[in-house]
Recover the amino acids of this structure.
């Protein structure tokens, strides 16, 4: 199901959603898509921004400080799987980040 309030846009190889009225207004940039979703009441996009994808990629990249911050998010689903069935724990273990694996296991 498509939401006409948001358009998919790509810039410098990165794809994301853009409020459709920004395109009509020919705005130069969106500072923070998460803030825009909150400001405009776009609950489904806000939920997508807050799911565990950020945790997965932080674990995949070995960014312990980022993982630590994300683990404080109360609604984070640690065992959420991506389309391939992988979790943040899988990413950290596969990449050899034992310290992050330990953090995830301690969290639950």
């Amino acid at each position: 199901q498509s939401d006409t309030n948001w358009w998919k846009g790509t810039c410098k190889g990165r794809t994301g959603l853009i409020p459709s009225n920004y395109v009509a207004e020919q705005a130069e940039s969106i500072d923070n898509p998460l803030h825009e979703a909150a400001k405009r009441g776009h609950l489904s996009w806000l939920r997508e921004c807050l799911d565990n994808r950020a945790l997965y990629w932080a674990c995949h990249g070995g960014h312990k400080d980022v993982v630590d911050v994300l683990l404080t998010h109360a609604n984070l689903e640690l065992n959420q799987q991506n389309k391939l069935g992988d979790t943040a724990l899988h990413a950290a273990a596969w990449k050899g980040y034992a310290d992050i694996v330990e953090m995830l296991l301690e969290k639950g």
